[in-house]
Amino acid sequence: MQLTVEFGGGLELLCDSVKVHTVNVEVPNGAQKLTMRDFLTWVHKNLIKERPEMFIKGDTVRPGVLVLVNDCDWELSGQLETTLEEKDVVVFISTLHGG
Amino acid sequence: MDSNGAAGTAIRREIESLNAAKADIESRISALEAQLRDMDHGTGAISSNGSCTLAAPVDLGLEHGLSPDMIYRYSRQLLLPSFGVQAQSNLWKSSILVVGAGGLGSPALLYLAACGVGRLGIVDNDVVELNNMHRQIIHTEAYIGRPKVESAAAACRAVNSTIQIVEHKEALRTSNALEIMSKYDIVVDATDNAPSRYMISDCCVVLGKPLVSGAAIGFEGQLTVYNYKGGPCYRCLFPTPPPTTACQRCSDSGVLGVVPGIVGCLQALEAIKIASEVGEPLSGRMLLLDALSARIRIVKIRGRSLECAACGENTGFTKEQFRIFDYEKFTQSPMLASPLKLNLLPQDSRISSKEYSEIVKNGEAHVLVDVRPAHHFKIVSLPRALNVPLPTLESRVAEISSALKGVEMQDGKGASLYVVCRRGNDSQRAVEYLQKVGFPFAKDIVGGIEGWARDVDPNFPTY
């Protein structure tokens, strides 16, 4: 399944400063669909190059990170249970405080 | 050359003192104008308790109550069919508080003053500095060293002398926030740190005020409207504060001046829409700006959370709870931009910048390692320093060993190892590590290159 992943708000620093990634992810063996829970594990393993604690806490993203699936807060689509489909765009963005 | 140098210094000094005098005069003029305006307001406009009533100048029988001067001044807005006299009149009756007169607050305040908001409040506790000027466009060089609130108020008055400008020359705290914010209809968060953002949002929830929140750093910006007509508050979105390492500041990470400028303009726009009751405020949505790739994305965010600690159904904050809440403890970070001062090393593992300057003067054999990032090192560095950015230190220990050996070969005796950074925190972390991996004699320079500039070489550039 082809997906686009974007990092922003400084999270791109955890993956060699690359903001946009086009990736191919397989649906896990024995599963019918790919959920954000699977995908988060995949991103953690395949894209995050340093300081993973700045991205993940427990089984979800760390506080202060917004997750958007197709420009929509994942809170509205079931968080970790959100089902991903071909060509979906997932954005991880860290909240900014500066001014 | 010498006499030229002396003459130059004298001219610079005179310019400085004239600028200070100019700022004083401007400030006095704007204060007097404000006084005069308050007297005029006895006959209309804005009463001393701050509540706005419409000016009733010439009786032309105009129902909207806008005076001829106002009609002319705001004519280009009145000509907009979906804005018009009603929205202008709503603006004039409204009051907006801008917290922070920095990169976001600068353009926000100028536009809010220009468009005819009846009463505009400014809160800030900072003074204008030279390194603010590239983005905090409301301030001028003449105001360097003076309170930002005074500077911003004078600039707003210069743009529009007919509105009321209120100066709050203090830091916003739980002790004064309820009192200050309760006097305004809308709050604009133009601050630069996490604890202030939680505090302002909570206070808006307690007082039932809409909050226009903007943030910017580097080349990125974010904007949304909180607590507007049943929409989410800051805590609905971010119930748990992020780790302090995720809270970058402009003074550490840098920011392109125009980026907070764009976000500040958008904050003014949202505040104007709410105050004038036109359009659809950015509530339940968030605007994300990526200036480098020239992309703006507007995303849908969650609604109000029933379990929110601030605005939830049964869990909501009271004024009393707000007053005693410790936001700095909650977020583990300070509201004021005082840089961190670590003390990791024993005294005998540290030297002052003065002591280091003696070592250089006496030609003592040593290696100086500068652990700042490479782009900092390019701005300025001490002579013959070896740049080994802290994250790469582990992999470059051999390089430091061979640099020490090189110096020892030259001098025929043992060489010392000193570590420097910007302010003296990372250098301590580096020495802690180096002492563990075979350099027990490594020492750090207290205060970093900022200390060097302060105590040894006043001409050394700081940033």
TrEMBL record, chain A:
CDD domains: Ubl_Urm1 (cd01764). Pathway: tRNA modification; 5-methoxycarbonylmethyl-2-thiouridine-tRNA biosynthesis. Keywords: Cytoplasm, Isopeptide bond, tRNA processing, Ubl conjugation pathway. Coiled coil: none annotated. Its main location: cytoplasm. InterPro entries: Beta-grasp_dom_sf (IPR012675), Mopterin_synth/thiamin_S_b (IPR016155), Urm1 (IPR015221). Gene3D superfamilies: 3.10.20.30. It is found in: Cytoplasm. It comes from the Eukaryota. GO terms for biological process: protein urmylation; tRNA thio-modification; tRNA wobble uridine modification. GO terms for cellular component: cytosol. The keyword Cytoplasm applies. Belongs to the URM1 family. This is Ubiquitin-related modifier 1 homolog.
Automatic annotation (TrEMBL), chain B:
GO terms for biological process: Mo-molybdopterin cofactor biosynthetic process; tRNA wobble position uridine thiolation. The active site is at 250 (glycyl thioester intermediate), 421 (cysteine persulfide intermediate). PROSITE patterns: RHODANESE_3. GO terms for molecular function: ATP binding; metal ion binding; molybdopterin-synthase adenylyltransferase activity; molybdopterin-synthase sulfurtransferase activity; thiosulfate-cyanide sulfurtransferase activity; URM1 activating enzyme activity. It is an enzyme of class 2 (transferase). Its main location: cytoplasm. Its EC number is 2.7.7.80, 2.8.1.11. SMART domains: RHOD (SM00450). Pfam families: Rhodanese, ThiF. It comes from the Eukaryota. Keywords: ATP-binding, Cytoplasm, Metal-binding, Molybdenum cofactor biosynthesis, Multifunctional enzyme, Nucleotide-binding, Transferase, tRNA processing, Zinc. It is found in: Cytoplasm, Cytosol. Zn(2+) binds at residues 233, 236, 308, 311. ATP binds at residues 103, 124, 131-135, 148, 192-193. CDD domains: ThiF_MoeB_HesA_family. It catalyses: [molybdopterin-synthase sulfur-carrier protein]-C-terminal Gly-Gly-AMP + S-sulfanyl-L-cysteinyl-[cysteine desulfurase] + AH2 = [molybdopterin-synthase sulfur-carrier protein]-C-terminal-Gly-aminoethanethioate + L-cysteinyl-[cysteine desulfurase] + A + AMP + 2 H(+); [molybdopterin-synthase sulfur-carrier protein]-C-terminal Gly-Gly + ATP + H(+) = [molybdopterin-synthase sulfur-carrier protein]-C-terminal Gly-Gly-AMP + diphosphate. Its cofactor is Zn(2+). Residues 362-461 form the Rhodanese domain. GO terms for cellular component: cytosol. PANTHER family: ADENYLYLTRANSFERASE AND SULFURTRANSFERASE MOCS3, UBIQUITIN-ACTIVATING ENZYME E1. In the N-terminal section; belongs to the HesA/MoeB/ThiF family. UBA4 subfamily. Plays a central role in 2-thiolation of mcm(5)S(2)U at tRNA wobble positions of cytosolic tRNA(Lys), tRNA(Glu) and tRNA(Gln). Also essential during biosynthesis of the molybdenum cofactor. Acts by mediating the C-terminal thiocarboxylation of sulfur carriers URM1 and MOCS2A. Its N-terminus first activates URM1 and MOCS2A as acyl-adenylates (-COAMP), then the persulfide sulfur on the catalytic cysteine is transferred to URM1 and MOCS2A to form thiocarboxylation (-COSH) of their C-terminus. This is Adenylyltransferase and sulfurtransferase MOCS3. It comes from Punica granatum (Pomegranate).
